[in-house]
Design a protein that fits this description.
Rossmann fold; Tumour Suppressor Smad4; single chain; five-stranded mixed sheet; Helicase, Ruva Protein, domain 3
């Protein structure tokens, strides 16, 4: 199609809509185009493929344009449309459910479409807010002293000209912090260019980072600036920099030292004006010592280092973060009344170890909001893996074959009260060990006051840990 219609289609602004697909434990997104038809089904020819036996090979078509509509193609299980929750007077009992079989129905943002056992929610593409480094002492989320210190140091790093290296586990928010450093720096008016180092192969590094001239290789039909040139006057974020291949590390180091790049197919050096912020979940200093990462590149990147603690060490931040994610998830689906976090959900959130950190929490809350049709988030709305992990971790310990609780009466059989004391003492010792002697956090974890914890410590004859309640 080469006429005026094709031109209009190409020039139409991209919408900010996407599909959130919830299939079992999997949660993924699918960006919607400005116009077109999205075929949905289990077949390999479907644009949106859902590998679920309850989904037909050619299940439905989603039509995108000035309006949204879904058409069932005669699927075995039909297509169910559930109107968005939180619509004011609409209650869970009066939700508008439409069961489509070879019929079409209009859709709006926030609606949930069910294909077999897979749910698909239409939402706005999530946009991460930029952290305000100037509000570290009054921010609702930054409650942990270690995180407060990270933000204070990040504020200093933003004002400097040094390269920054951010350490932290996957999902703690390293890229969000990098965005904040850029936004509060003298380069804030320039671009912020993110490079996924884990996906950057040695064969692509020169063309992607340094650019190329027309005819430099097959398919190079026109000259193209690399990412370093495109970021001129701004910041380059090197995500997972520890994953760079050795050959790529050498090329990156040369560009950083000379502040120039040479495009493929050219002999002319081009100056670059960028600041580098890098992030890694590896012990990069140790890797530089044993030769897995170039030591000279490590020193070049590590002008200012920041270490973001994992979420499991910031328990007092879980509830406010969850509240923010509920609000954000509701805004994405245009849900007017955010559901309330139930006490049982909050307890589960605080007990989970969060191996995926803040990203895992955000995804879990987004999933829960999508599945919740009432006004309260309940445990069944959380991912089953989280419920199982919490249940397994906090299950009562299996009874040990001798030695077991011994009766104070000398007959070898413990009373119920004595057995309870043994279990309670064990739980207190485990909690103190888990929180490195921090009595306040151990008490909160056990669901008792600090005074009660101290009384039980004395009653059981547990050695008082060195005070570490900061």
């Amino acid at each position: 199609m080469d006429g005026p219609e094709a031109t209009a289609s190409r020039e139409a602004p991209e919408p900010d809509l996407e599909l959130m697909i919830l299939s079992g434990e999997e949660v993924r997104s699918f960006a919607l185009p400005a116009h077109g038809e999205i075929t949905i089904g289990r077949g390999e020819q479907s644009l949106l493929r859902i590998d679920d036996p309850s989904v037909s090979r050619n299940h439905a078509i989603l039509r995108v344009g000035k309006t949204l509509a879904i058409e069932d193609l005669g699927s075995a299980n039909g297509t169910v449309v559930r109107s968005k929750a939180g619509g004011g007077s609409q209650s869970a009992e009066t939700l508008n459910l439409r069961h489509l079989v070879q019929r079409e129905a209009p859709l709006s943002v926030g609606d949930c479409v069910v294909f077999g056992t897979t749910s698909v929610v239409i939402r706005h593409r999530p946009v991460a807010a930029v952290l305000d480094l100037a509000e570290t002492r009054t921010g609702v989320v930054v409650r942990d002293p270690a995180m407060r210190l990270v933000y204070e140091h990040a504020s200093l790093a933003a004002r400097s000209l040094l390269n920054v290296l951010i350490f932290g586990e996957t999902g703690v928010g390293k890229e969000l912090l990098a965005h904040a450093i850029h936004a509060h720096s003298r380069r804030a008016a320039g671009p912020f260019v993110s490079v996924n180092c884990a996906a950057l192969t040695e064969s692509l590094v020169e063309s992607e980072l340094f650019g190329y001239e027309k005819g430099a290789f097959t398919g190079a039909y026109q000259a193209r600036a690399g990412l370093f040139e495109a970021a001129s006057g701004g910041t380059v974020f090197l995500d997972e920099v520890g994953e760079l291949a050795a050959g790529v590390q050498a090329k990156l180091l040369r560009a950083m030292e000379q502040r120039t790049v040479t495009r493929l197919g050219s002999n002319r050096e081009r100056p670059i004006d960028v600041r580098f912020v890098a992030a890694t979940n590896l012990e990069l200093e140790a890797a530089s010592v044993d030769g897995r990462f170039r030591q000279d590149l490590f020193f070049r990147l590590n002008g200012f280092s920041l270490s973001v603690p994992p979420l499991r060490e910031r328990l007092q931040e879980i509830e406010p973060l969850a509240g923010i994610f509920v609000t954000t998830a509701c805004r994405d689906v245009e849900r007017s009344e955010p559901p309330v976090l139930s006490a049982s959900v909050l307890e589960i959130l605080c007990r989970h170890r969060w191996p995926g950190n803040v990203r895992e929490l955000r995804n879990a809350i987004g999933r829960a909001v999508a599945l919740c049709i009432g006004d309260v988030l309940l445990p069944e709305h959380l991912p089953p893996s989280i419920l199982k992990a919490v249940e397994t971790r906090h299950a009562p310990p299996a009874p040990e074959a001798p030695p077991g609780p011994v009766s104070s009466r000398g007959n070898g059989v413990a009373t119920l009260s004595e057995a309870k004391d043994v279990l309670e003492k064990r739980r207190i010792v485990e909690a103190l060990d888990q929180f490195a002697g921090n009595q306040t956090r151990a008490a909160r974890f056990l669901g008792i006051s600090r005074g009660t914890l101290l009384a039980r410590i004395d009653a059981f004859g547990i050695p008082r840990p060195r005070r570490n309640d900061d």
